[in-house]
Design goal:
This protein is an alpha+beta fold. It has a single domain, classed as L,D-transpeptidase catalytic domain-like. Strands 3-2-1-9-4 form a five-stranded mixed β-sheet, with helices on one face. Strands 5-6-7-8 form a four-stranded mixed β-sheet, covered by helices on one side.
Length: 177
């Protein structure tokens, strides 16, 4: 009987380790919705608004692993802008906190994924504790509304660059009066 109990205990331990091996964190960034969701062990735990790349920049789609973390970081490329709770996942691309919280929910960054500093702190702690079990998935496209707004702004810009019409081209030459 003790052998049976021992075998059952070993099997239970192995099953527990197998379940833990499948456990993990999946951080999904939906650029179309400008939302970040966090699934922990198959359960949706968090969903927050984000800002991804604005017009003229890009946030690359794909599936990544966190490469390195920085509690306090400053962008060397963009005027030493603060990037608290940075989770770098693809070279210089990171998920990080931003103090530009009024822009969350619409494209506003140079390519990184910005979120509220409080939410960034929660995500940072979670990823730090489970870095090897974390995936970052970036999907979607720029939101249609933002793309339409950018298109109308670029059309206004083209109209402003059009050569001004002269008085004569509108009303004709003085000899025609």
């Amino acid at each position: 009987m003790p052998r049976v109990a021992f075998v059952i205990a070993i099997l239970a331990a192995l099953l527990g380790m197998a379940a833990h091996a499948d456990a993990g964190i999946v951080v999904t960034v939906d650029k179309t919705a400008q939302r970040l969701s966090v699934v922990v062990d198959g359960v949706n735990r968090y969903e927050w608004p984000v800002s991804t790349a604005r017009w003229g920049y890009r946030t690359p789609n794909g599936t990544y692993r966190p490469q390195w973390l920085a509690r306090k970081w400053f962008s060397r490329k963009y005027d030493m802008s603060p990037m608290p709770y940075s989770i770098f996942f693809n070279g210089g691309y990171a998920i990080h906190g931003s103090y530009e919280i009024s822009h969350l929910g619409r494209p506003a960054s140079h390519g990184c994924i910005r979120l509220h500093p409080d939410n960034a702190a929660v995500l940072f702690a979670l990823v730090k504790a489970h870095m090897k079990d974390t995936q970052v998935v970036v999907i979607g496209d720029r939101p249609e509304r933002a793309a339409a707004r950018d298109n109308s702004a670029s059309k206004r810009g083209r109209a402003a660059r059009r050569p001004a019409r002269t008085f004569e081209s509108i009303f004709g030459a003085p000899s025609n009066w």
